[in-house]
Every structure is written in C-alpha cells, then in structure tokens.
Amino acid sequence: MRYIRIILILLIALLIVVFSVQNAEVVEVRFLAWRLESSRALIMLICVGIGSLGTIVALLPAIFGKKEKGNTEY
C-alpha cells in the first residue's frame, strides 16, 4: 500500500510538471483596475484554488448545520 501511495504522488507531480511546461507562456489578465501578467499555468492554478476555497466556504453551513440537536423536551 505504501508503494502505491508513493507512485500516485509521483504521478501527480509528473502531471503538474507537464501541465506547467505546456502552459508556460505569459498572459495578461485584467480585472477592474487590476492588471496581472503571469504564466498561464499559474493563473489557472490560482483560479482553481479560488474556486475550491469558494466551494468550501459555500458548503460550511451544510456541514455544520447537520449536527444532531439533542432532545430539549423535559
């Protein structure tokens, strides 16, 4: 099981390297008054991170709202 985990981690790292090399060109992103120039891979990873964070924040009420409430009847 340990070797499978190591192989899986190495495979994911290899995919990230290939993705970064294929998307290394510099692009410009404009949003309102901001202007950012960076590699396409970095921009995409930042967008995925922001989307993941937004999803986690949106799911927080559902996660913490499912706690069973004790019987308050006396």
How is this structure best summarized?
Helices cover 64% and strands 16% of the residues. With 74 residues, the chain is of the alpha+beta class.
Mind explaining what this structure looks like?
The chain is built from two helices and two strands; from the N terminus they run H-E-E-H. By secondary structure, it is α+β, with helices and mostly antiparallel strands. The protein has a domain at 24-63. The longest helix has 26 residues, at 40-65. The mean pLDDT is 84.
What secondary-structure arrangement, pairings included, does this model have?
Elements lengths: L1 H21 L3 E6 L2 E6 H26 L9
Antiparallel strand pairs: 1-2
How would you sum up the global shape?
Answer: flat
Count all strands and give the number.
Answer: 2
Radius of gyration of CA atoms, rounded to a whole number: 21 Å
Cα distance, first to last residue?
Answer: 52 Å
Summary keywords:
single chain; 74 residues; alpha+beta; two-stranded antiparallel ribbon; 2 helices; 64% helix; 16% strand; flat
